[in-house]
Amino acid sequence: MKYIILLKCYRKYAILFASMVFKFFPDPNPHPSEADYDSETGDAGRELKKLAKKDRQLYLTVKTFLNKVKQTNDLTPFLQAEQIYRFPGDKNELYEMRIPKQRRGGVFRIYFCKSMEDNEKNTLILLCAELKHKPEPMKLDNATELLKKYKETIYKEERKNEKR
After folding, report:
1. How far apart are alpha carbons 154 and 91 in whole angstroms?
2. Residue 82's closest CA among 93, 67, 98, 70?
3. % of the chain exceeding 90 in pLDDT
4. pTM of whole model > 0.85?
5. Residue 112 — φ and ψ, nearest 5°?
6. Is 112's pLDDT higher than 90?
7. Helices (runs of H) and strands (runs of E) counted in the chain
């Protein structure tokens, strides 16, 4: 009987440990699991706040999708279902969430990258977001710039730690 209880506790711990964590760039703190997404800062946080006011139903869809992503530790199923897209070539560190995959009134896109810090393998850095009505991404250049700023921030942190 004790063995079963320990096994259940271990599984619960493993699930909690393996889940994704979101950071809304430039905020270095992880998104609290109990908090709502429209209370965040940065470009992605502002766009989610606008979406919550403008289209509550789409906001709830986005929130549900983000919670699904948060509960996993692997993006492969989302990449295969084409709800998450990885940009090719020189932008291969940049990803895009399309929520929903297609919709007549437009889709909400969140541009993100995986954390480049060694101790944050299951962390996604949400760079920026947009409500899209056309197939071409309008904030792709902005996302690329924010990705560069994020890399610079990480590089500076590593340099600071090396000097200590």
Report:
1. 18
2. 98
3. 49
4. no
5. -150, 170
6. yes
7. 5, 5
